[in-house]
Amino acid sequence: MKKFLTAALMIAIIALGYWQKDQFIALIEAGGMVSVLVSILFVAILVFFPIMPFFLVAGIIGGVFGTWQGSLISLTGAVVGALIMFGMARFGFREWIQGYIQKYPKAKEYEGYFEQNAFLSILFFRVVPVIPSPLINILSGISKVSWFTFFAATLIGKIPSILVFTFAGSQFGESKMTSVITFGVYMVAIFIAVFVFLRKQELKKQQ
Fold this sequence. Notes:
It is a multi-pass membrane protein. By secondary structure, the chain is an all-alpha fold.
């Protein structure tokens, strides 16, 4: 029963973001205290499903609030959303998934490795998005990873991308070239990091 309630709540959160995204963006662009709260809420919703590209929303927030305040707002929303999704996965899916994992020794072995290296694993995949963020939240939630480990790794790992996206957005009105170059350099760096990671994994399989 818990898994169905959790799944239904996740779907409801995604539906809210999808149907109200234009209203969310309008309120964010209006500025002010309400805009801060709406920004945090909308970013938290995007954690569940990218209704809009996160870099675009973080850029809009950066354009309204500036680099530092905008980064803090986006980071707060991203971490809050990740923690909520982590908690929902732990409440709704953990017992169910663990029942299956117990039947497969290899899966249990992978889970044990992940739990032993949880902080570095989560941190790495936050910085280098080889695995989609929602999947990291769910996998962490159904494992034995502690709340603090998940929180700390997520907080630190989200900072680089949020700073870049927010800075690029804050500069768009003044210098589109600076904004585009900043975003482009970051995406190239991420592409290279992902390529190197996948290449190493492929070589390991061949050995």
